[in-house]
Specification:
The protein starts with a strand and ends with a helix. It is an alpha+beta fold and 79 residues long. The chain contains two helices and five strands; from the N terminus they run βββββαα. It has one domain. This is DUF4160 domain-containing protein. InterPro entries: DUF4160.
Length: 79
Amino acid sequence: MVTIYRAHGLRIIIFTDDHEPAHVHVFGDGQAKINLIGPDGSPVLVWAQGMKGNEVRRAVQVVRDQQDLFLAKWREIHG
């Protein structure tokens, strides 16, 4: 597990032994999984547990804002 970003009380990680599609796990009060590239090319929420709506929205926005960086990190880790 590699922490790739921290902001707004959120910790965004990529598991080194994870699977496609490219995605991140976000930890705050709960946790969420967000695919880095959805059907329209932007990140898409896969699931969230224990997070309030505003925290989920913040997590998705952070991933949108940092999509290129997170994709580069995914490729660095997974080839």
